[in-house]
Amino acid sequence: MDRWYAWVDNKIYGPYLPEQLGEFVRPETNLCREGMEEWKPAKDHPELAFILRGMVLETPPNVGWMVRKANTPDVRGPFAKSELLRMMDAGQIAQGDFIKHTGWDEWEPFEKTKLLHPESAEPDAETPPNPEEFHRVLKESTDAELLKEYQTNYRMYPRRERQMLKEELLRRGLIKKTFGLF
Description:
By secondary structure, this protein is of the alpha+beta class. The protein has six helices and eight strands.
């Protein structure tokens, strides 16, 4: 079965099965079939028409945001994004606190997110990158190269690439999966 990548907010997500795309894709969402390089809006992929049929185009509430205050193990949430922004405006979330979305595999310092500085987000690239390129580089890297990259540059990568790097290290048995909130 075909799997798809989605290009949203200048980031690649996926790969997803077509049924999973139905949870978030919109007609204008750029998609690329796994193994291909061409990006097109979902509405231009006839094989995905069943996802868009009868779709309510209102964006559902973006629920799934959690907050962990600095220096505490206490986790609050999940919250809708609008509630998270209200908490930020009210000073209930500050520098040093951490946020995490249910789709993320790790906590992020609040001050480094686009939530705090939306104007600093990079503009959408005219051409999305090939979603397979980073994965190919990981596969071709030696164990020593991957471990060095993980130890020195891990935090410099966008969240999706960090996740891919971790998955490759786990697959090779170079790190162990950790469980927990932090």
